[in-house]
Amino acid sequence: MKTPNVRGIWIGLGLGLGLSILANGAALAAGRASSPARARSAGARVITLQVLPGSGGGPSGPDGKHHDAFMPSNIEVPVDQIVTVRIVNHDMMEHSIYQPRLGLDIVARPAAMKPDGRMVPVTTTATFSVRSKGRYRWYCTKPCDDDASGWAMAPGGRGSRDAGLPGKDGFMAGEIVAF
Ligand SMILES: [Cu+2]
How many Å lie between the centroid of ligand 1 and the Cα of residue 112? Predict the structure, then answer.
């Protein structure tokens, strides 16, 4: 049996799930401005990711269509540090960050609809730490990117370990780099 690679997990998960509905126009603007890239967490132990729907600011793929995406989709975390990930979901669908070697299965709750028809993003917060340096590819396990035939969650993993696994990197998949 393998030793789990994550130490003090989920401290914040239950709390975050219970809490945060944010009506946050600023967050949306920030999400649109960012491109899939690494979020350096050294110094700041809180990493914020935006989930944008293809119909609402998500990036375009090689097919020229816009797709659901985590932005950024790659994050860097120092080993043995408790890191808090905030996922601000602007999509009316669930998405997730699934990485079994790290014991991660963070489900980002869908955005909410106000009575007046305004969509407000919903933030899910999870806390975890990684024990060993390395690159850990994650992907979303929730059926999504419907507007573009689900391209963002079609198999996109490469290499001996990740070949054939779901998710297009930079959209519904990415890497957690532990350093
Ligand atoms: Cu997804």
Answer: 16
H-assigned helices in 20-75: 25-33
Q: What is the pLDDT of residues 111-136, one digit of tens each?
A: 999 999 999 999 999 999 999 999 99
What distance in angstroms lies between residue 1's CA and the mean position of ligand 1's atoms? 30
**Global confidence as pTM:** 0.77
Centre of ligand 1 from the C-alpha of residue 154, in Å: 11
- What average pLDDT does the chain have? 82
What CATH superfamily is the domain 13-178?
A: Cupredoxins -  blue copper proteins (2.60.40.420)
Ligand 1 center to residue 158 CA distance, Å?
19
Measured in Å, residue 9 CA sits from the centre of ligand 1 at: 22
Cα–ligand 1 centroid distance for 142 (angstroms): 5
Residues 139-179 pLDDT 10s = 999 999 999 999 999 999 999 999 999 999 999 999 999 99
Q: Give the whole-angstrom CA distance, residue 64 versus residue 48.
A: 27
Q: Could you tell me the CA-to-CA distances from 115 to 93, 110, 111, 160 in Å, in that order?
A: 18, 16, 13, 49
